[in-house]
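Reviewers of the previous submission asked for a worked example of the structure-prediction workflow described in the proposal, so we include one complete record here. The input consisted solely of the amino acid sequence. No template or homolog information was supplied to the procedure at any stage.
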Amino acid sequence: MSRTRVKESMILAALALGAAVPAAAQNQRLTFYGFFDLELHATDQGGGAPWTFDQHHFNAVSIYRLDDHWRVFAEVEWEHGPRVEAADVAGEVALERATLEYKSADAFQVKIGKFLPPFGLYNLRHDATPTFLSTTLPGSVYSEHTNPLGQRQRLFAKFGTGVQALGTMFTRRWELDYFAYLINGRGPEPGEQDNNPNKGVGGRFAIRPPGNALQVGASYYADRNGDAADTRQRSFAFDVTLKYDQFLLEAEALVPRLERVDAGGVPDGTFRSGRAYYAQASRAVLERWTPFVRYEFYDPDAAAPSDGERDLVAGMNAAATGAVFFKSEVHFRSFQAPGLATYRVWISSVAVAF
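From that input alone, the workflow returned the following C-alpha cells.
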C-alpha cells in the first residue's frame, strides 16, 4: 500500500471512530484533529437558489486520555460560517459530541454523554466529509423527510444523549461489531431533557468474514418523537459493503414506520410504512482518482401510489494528498408524481482532514 493510502486510511479511521491521527501523539494525553470543507452548489430547479459557495463545516476534535482505560472525547462544529452579533445570527456553533469513554477490551467499551448513534454505514461519520466519496450523503436514508405533522426530519436521531455499549469480537478470523444505546428521544432539548417518558433505543451490528472484503450490517432505532406530537417512530435498516481490488460497492435499505395523527394532531395508533434504499459503486483509478455512481429511491408511504423520489448521482473524488480531497458531482432528481418536474443539482467541494 502506498504512503498516501496509508495516511488516508489513518485519517478516515480517526474521523470515523475517534482515534488519534498522528502516531507520534499516541503517547500524549491530549490530542487534536478535525476537518474542514467548502462547497459550491448550483441547480436548474425552477425557483431554486442561484449558485453559491457554502462554508459548510469546520470541526475540531479533542481527546484527553486519562489512563489506559478512560478518556474524554469532544467535537465542536462551526457550520455555515457562523456569525453572532447583536440581533444578527447566522450559521451554527454546536457541541456535536462530548463523551466519557471506558475501554475494558476490544470486546467491551462504554460511552456516556452526547454521541452520534450508530445507524447505517454513515451516521457515525455523518459530517466528516473527508471520510466519504461524495459531498452529500445518500439523501434517501440520511436526509430529512416529512414526518406525520408535515415537518421535515431525519428518520432516526442524528445525535443522542445517554449511554452506549459497544465492542468488536473476533471468532476464527470473523469480526463482529455491536452497538446498543439508550438516549433521550428526539424533542426540543434532547441534550438536556426528554419531553416524554419514552426513551430512544437503538442498536447496530456488522459482520465481516475472513478477508474483510465483505461486511453485512443491520441497524434499529425507535422513540416517541417529541418534535412530532410524541408519535411512535421506528426505523430498520440493512447494509452491505463489498470491496474487491479497487472496486467498492455500498448499499443500504431502510424501512421507517411512522405513527399517523388524527385531524386534531393526536397520534391515532396506525402507522405508515415507507421505504428507502440506495446503491453506490466506485473504482479507484491511478490511486488518486475515484469516479462513483449512485442510485437512490425514497417512498414515504409504500401503500400510496406515485409518491416516490429518485436521485441518480455521478461524480468524481480526487485525492490531492492523503488529507485533501476535491469532489464534484451532479444529481438528477426525478419524481413519480406526474406534476413534479425533474431537475439537476451540481455540487463541488474540497474536504480537508487535519
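Residues 3-17 form the longest helix (15 residues). We consider this example representative of the routine output the project will generate in years two and three.
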